[in-house]
Specification:
Radius of gyration: 26 Å
Shape: elongated
Number of strands: 31
Length: 382
């Protein structure tokens, strides 16, 4: 009649015994006569081995934690857990294909991250509970395309499948998850195609991570992401111009676009990103002048990297207003003119890289006023 067994954060070793299947074989009731939920927590121990087949008989399981152990073998024992709502299997050594989701009528939260799971995400994923809000399968070896019907799980809030071997495109049906907060596909090097236009339905999105993929287009509709705080797309293959609509990203703190194929000018609207702390646009094909509005970006500890582009013209005078800047990298461009003396007023600035440009004049004497400066790269100017 045992219904609840928690032994989390101990040093229990060895396998789970086969006799586990006899536990909770009869319903249990609390002091008020209410049927109790079956809840097992083996998390954060040193348990190992395959999960015994008898474990699958615990089909009234509502809460299951096996995380942070050394379990191996298949996860198919889960397939009959029609009552399970919260499932933590992360940080083990489970392997083989994913189980069928067909009978997971109740699941709301599922963490499968950091295992050795392989194969594709099955179409039965779309038959899981429509109210599932959390799915994490990052750091595995999953392959193939995401199922087209993924939009059936339209209450997803956090979806993380980064660092796998997924391919294909982002299914447009994912846009139906209008409450999406964090969406992470990074480090799936064969994912390709555009970010769907319909992502403007993600009104609450705060974090999008698509770095080290072959995703190639950022639509204007991302301007509707007015709550976005982190956008990480370094090492993707985004091409074309930076959408002017990013001026609506007033909450953005981290914007990483290094190592793409972006072209055209930096939009004036960049100056509206006043909460930005890290702005990385290096290693693209951006042209034109650095906009004067860049001076609006003055968060404490601000780092800006615009190196290895095709930027021209002078360093804008508005740089004098970037009071919080700590690192400035404008190297490997076509910038001209002199280096503004106003830079010397930024007492938190520890690194300046200006090498391989077309600056003229002498090395400014005001550099002596910057004892905090740890690195100055300025060779190959004029």
């Amino acid at each position: 009649q045992l219904q609840i067994f928690w032994c989390e954060y101990n040093n229990i070793v060895g396998p789970i015994p086969e006799s586990i299947g006899n536990v909770a074989s009869e319903p249990g009731y609390d002091v008020e006569g209410e049927l109790m939920d079956v809840s097992f927590n083996f998390g954060n121990n040193k348990l190992s081995g395959d999960i015994p087949s008898s474990f699958g008989r615990l089909n009234r399981m509502k809460y299951l934690k096996l995380n942070d152990n050394q379990f191996t073998g298949s996860t198919r024992f889960i397939a009959n857990f029609s009552s399970v709502e919260f499932m933590y299997l992360q940080n083990n050594q489970f392997s083989g294909p994913l189980f069928s989701f067909e009978k997971l009528y109740s699941v709301l939260f599922m963490d499968l991250s950091s295992n050795q799971l392989s194969g594709s995400v099955p179409d039965s994923f779309c038959l899981a509970h429509e109210w599932m809000f959390f799915f994490d399968a990052r750091n595995n070896q999953l392959t193939g395309a995401l199922p087209d019907c993924i939009g059936n799980i339209h209450n997803l809030v956090i979806f993380q499948v980064n660092n796998n071997k997924l391919s294909g495109i982002i299914p447009p049906s994912i846009c139906k998850a209008e409450g999406m907060l964090y969406f992470n596909l990074a480090d799936n090097t064969e994912l390709t195609g555009p970010i769907p236009d319909c992502v403007d339905q993600w009104f609450q999105i705060e974090g999008v991570f698509i770095g080290n993929t072959k995703l190639n287009y950022l639509p204007q509709s991302v301007g509707k992401w007015t709550n976005i705080k982190q956008f990480q797309a370094s090492g993707a293959q985004l091409a074309g111009q930076l959408p002017a609509t990013i001026e609506n990203w007033s909450q953005i703190e981290l914007l990483f676009l290094t190592g793409n194929r972006l072209s055209g000018s930096i939009p004036d609207g960049i100056g509206a990103l006043t909460k930005c702390q890290l702005l990385f646009l290096s290693q693209n094909q951006l042209t034109g002048n650095i906009p004067d509005t860049i001076g609006n970006l003055n968060q404490p500890g601000f780092v800006i990297q615009l190196s290895s582009n095709l930027l021209e013209g002078p360093i804008p005078s508005s740089i004098q207003y970037m009071s919080g800047i700590t690192e400035l990298d404008l190297s490997n461009n076509r910038l001209t003119g002199s280096i503004p003396e106003s830079i010397s007023n930024h007492h938190g600035l520890t690194s300046i890289l200006l090498k391989n440009n077309r600056f003229t004049g002498i090395i400014p004497t005001w550099i002596n006023k910057m004892p905090q400066l740890e690195y100055l790269g300025q060779h190959s100017t004029r």
